[in-house]
Specification:
With 134 residues, this protein is mainly beta. It has one domain: Jelly Rolls, CATH 2.60.120.380. Helix content is 0%, strand content 52%. Strands 1, 2, 5, 8 and 10 form a 5-stranded antiparallel beta sheet that branches. Strands 3, 4, 6, 7 and 9 form a 5-stranded antiparallel beta sheet that branches.
Length: 134
């Protein structure tokens, strides 16, 4: 069996990134994980739109779906404060701040929830998923 690697761009309202206002949050569009994917790694990026200061941290959560738990007819995703925390990127330490983490598999798909903890600056976020398929 051949192993392939494929990148999946995470989008926000069909764009590759989104600027999140100070104290705000945003949830990405849904992405699908290929059914043959046996390992998934996601790269997360936070790029401060201003001069970074203490507290300019973006927290990223994976809102995973395994399908339709109650049989209502549609995929359901984890809730923003209950699902898997992936990372907290501090743009004061590094700007832009970038990290790579593995995601739990198997999954049908997911969304990325990003919350900007800054009191005064917008921060632009982006992400991509790398799937190893077999």
């Amino acid at each position: 069996m051949a192993i392939t690697v494929s990148e999946v761009q995470v989008t926000w309202a069909a764009a590759n990134s989104v600027s999140i206002a100070a104290g705000g949050n945003d949830t990405s569009d849904a992405f699908v994980v290929d059914e043959t994917c046996f390992q998934g790694t996601i790269q997360l990026k936070a790029d401060n739109d201003g001069e970074p200061a203490a507290g300019d941290i973006v927290t990223f959560n994976l809102l995973a779906t395994l399908g339709d738990p109650d049989g209502a007819g549609a995929n359901e995703y984890g809730t923003t404060l209950q699902d898997t925390q992936l990372a907290a990127l501090d743009t004061l330490r590094d700007d832009p701040a970038i990290c790579t983490v593995q995601i739990p598999l198997p999954l049908v798909g997911g969304k990325i929830y990003a919350a900007n903890g800054s009191a005064g600056r917008a921060i632009t976020v982006s992400a991509c998923l790398l799937e190893q398929r077999g």
